[in-house]
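Encode chain A's predicted structure.
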Amino acid sequence: TVATGADSLRAAAPLPGVPKLRLPALGGWRARTENPESAPGFDDSAWRVADKKASHSTTPVPEGRPVLFADDYGFHYGDVWYRGTLTDAAGLESVKLSYSTGTLGLLMAWLDGEPLGTHRMPVPDNSTIRKGTWTDTAVFEVPGQLRAGGRHVLSVLVRRMAHDQDGASRDTHKAARGLTAVSFTGAAPKAVWRIQGEAAPDPVRGPLNNGGLYGERAGWHLPGFPDGDWEPVAFPRAEWRQGVTWYRTTFRLAVPTGVDASVGLTLQDDPGRAYRAQIFLNGWNLGQYVNDVGPQHTFVLPNGILRTRGTNTLALAVLSEARTASGPGRVELTLLGGTAGGV
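Encoded structure for chain A:
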C-alpha cells in the first residue's frame, strides 16, 4: 500500500482474487424404504389412544366421535400417523377421511397394508394465497378383496404443513391439524384409533426439527446412523411406491481458511413428477422440496451446520404419492458465493 494525501492507504497492486472452489459431486447414495406403520401387523401398542371427547382447538369436534386432532395428543410439528383397528366391517365400500392442514397439506391411506391412495390440498391461487388452514375430505374406494368381515387396520399418514401464524391474533393458530373425522359407506365398523407424531424433542436441534416419520423417530437423519446395510443406489430415481423412502450420503468439503463460501443444495427433476423431499444436513431439517410445485430448487446449507472443512451427512426423506414416478432426479451442491476473508 501507499499513503495518499488524505491520510489513507491505497493499494499499490491488485489484491489476489478468491481461490477457485471446487465442490464435490454427490454420490455413494444409500436408500431404504419405510412406513412400516402401514402394515396390518405393525405393533402400535405404545402409541397414544385417540379417544378424547373434548379439544383445545377452535375446530369443532364431530358429534359422537373421538377427537383425532394431533395437537390434543401432544404432536405439534411435522407428519402424524393414525392407525384405526376396525371390527364389524363386512361389506365396507369406501372410507371418507376429513382432514385439516396448512398450505399444500397431504394425506395418504392404506387398508391392511394395501394402498388406498393419496389426497392433497390444491396449490393456492391469487384468491387463496393468504389462506392459512385448508380442509377437505378424501374418499377412497375399498377394493373388493378387503371387504370381508373380521379385523381390518386403516393406516393414515397426514403431512400437516405447519400451523397458521395468526399475526392478527384471531386464534387461527388453534385450528386443528391432522384427521378431523372418519366415516364409512357400506358398513358401520367400530374403530379404535391410535396416533403417533414426533418423538421427544431433539435436545440440540429443538422441537421444530422433526415430525413423526418412522425414520425421523429412529434417527435415520442423524450423522453416524449405521446405514451400511442400506441399498446402494444412484440418481436419478424413478420409484412407483406410495410412502416414504430415505436416501443418505456423505461428502467432504475443504474450503480454504481465507475464504468465506456459501453453499446450497439444488434439486432438479421433471416437474410433472409428484413427490416431496425433506432435507436434513448433519441432522438439521433445512426445508422441504415439493417437486411438482416449487418454486424453490436451491436450499442454503448454512455455515456452522455445514462443515466447510470436514465431513457432512446429507439425508433426504422422500414422500411419494405413487400417481407418478418419483425421484429424486438430479441432486448437487451449488456454490452460491465466495469472498476473501474467511470467518
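The first helix runs from residue 214 to 218.
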